[in-house]
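Milestone 3.1: sequence recovery, worked example.
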């Protein structure tokens, strides 16, 4: 591996939004790729692995994120929504950021909770959490707790949006975000910790209901409204690993389900040699597979090394730099740290 730690840190710093065109709440935000849009979901995931390196920058990002929350009317509206931000010329103000509907409400919130909890625990900054806990809880109420379905899963959007799917990938992130946030609240003696812990447990139970077949011979459904996988790289193949990556489960049968998820990934032609072949378009899970392999499949770590080398080559070539978006950069850095024995042995636990 030719990557160095400094390469990752410099790459992340290059994506930071700065300058007079940025609205106040985007000061400290990060682009998806050079000259790209701001997508908070991808930024949350990418920044997660950099908390120990850039704690102050992460704090500024978290506070800016909370400052961007707005109530939005319309089909994809709702309370306390975090939008994407784009800056194309056709908005009439070249290079001026403008909000755009997000791709989800639940996962944007869950990954923020995950990042905020990681920041608080890494820095031991309980005072920060006490300052912002009420606002974060309000955000989580509107975008996770209020979106719960009878199954325990969270729907992807607030009502009245017609898409009420409970996606496997989103809900794996939802379970982790709620679980980690509850743990952080518990550490400061916040009485709402148990409520968020119970919500996390309900999501875990709902996720288990997305498993089809008997453990050892089954697979995960893409969502509660998509009973059959389509064999695609995304979402079918990639979503299979998310429960094993994000969900903390005391259920003794969970390991068999997780093994089935990995088995299905390996059986789908769409995922052939994922470690040696970059996937298009950018934005779909890819580098997360190398992180999962480095974390959970020690016998297959050569695949994680191969993907990391490929990502480095893509990153260093100006023609392909934009094919390494912030979330892939973050997962690649997480893989780099795992392979080199740096940081936690289970960073998402």
């Amino acid at each position: 591996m030719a990557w160095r730690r400094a390469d990752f840190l410099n790459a992340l710093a290059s994506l930071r939004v700065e300058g007079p065109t940025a609205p106040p709440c985007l000061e400290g935000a990060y682009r998806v790729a050079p000259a790209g849009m701001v997508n908070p979901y991808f930024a949350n995931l990418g920044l997660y692995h950099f908390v120990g390196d850039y704690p102050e920058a992460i704090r500024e990002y978290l506070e800016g994120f909370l400052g961007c929350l707005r109530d939005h009317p319309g089909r994809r509206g709702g309370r306390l929504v975090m939008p994407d931000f784009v800056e194309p010329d056709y908005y009439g103000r070249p290079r001026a950021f403008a909000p755009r509907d997000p791709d989800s409400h639940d996962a944007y919130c869950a990954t923020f909770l995950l990042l905020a909890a990681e920041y608080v625990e890494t820095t031991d900054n309980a005072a920060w959490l006490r300052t912002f806990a009420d606002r974060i809880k309000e955000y989580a109420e509107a975008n996770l707790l209020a979106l719960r379905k009878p199954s325990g899963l969270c729907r992807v959007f607030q009502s009245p949006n017609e898409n009420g799917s409970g996606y496997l990938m989103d809900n794996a992130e939802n379970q982790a975000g709620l679980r980690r946030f509850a743990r952080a609240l518990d550490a400061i003696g916040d009485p709402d910790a148990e409520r968020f812990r119970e919500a996390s447990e309900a999501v875990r139970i709902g996720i288990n209901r997305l498993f089809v077949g008997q453990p050892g011979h089954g697979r995960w459904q893409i969502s509660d409204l998509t009973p059959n996988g389509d064999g695609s790289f995304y979402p079918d193949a990639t979503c299979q690993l998310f429960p094993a990556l994000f969900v903390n489960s005391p259920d003794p049968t969970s390991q068999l389900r997780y093994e089935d998820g990995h088995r299905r990934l390996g059986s789908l032609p769409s995922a052939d040699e994922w470690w040696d072949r970059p996937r298009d378009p950018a934005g779909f899970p890819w580098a997360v597979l190398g992180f999962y392999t480095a974390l959970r499949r020690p016998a297959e770590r050569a695949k994680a090394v191969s993907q990391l080398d490929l990502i480095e080559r893509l990153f260093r070539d100006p023609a392909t730099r934009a094919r390494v978006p912030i979330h892939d950069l973050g997962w690649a850095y997480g893989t780099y740290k795992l392979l080199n024995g740096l940081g936690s042995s289970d960073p998402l636990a």
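The chain has 13 helices and six strands. Strands lie at 70-72, 78-81, 84-86, 98-100, 211-212, 219-220.
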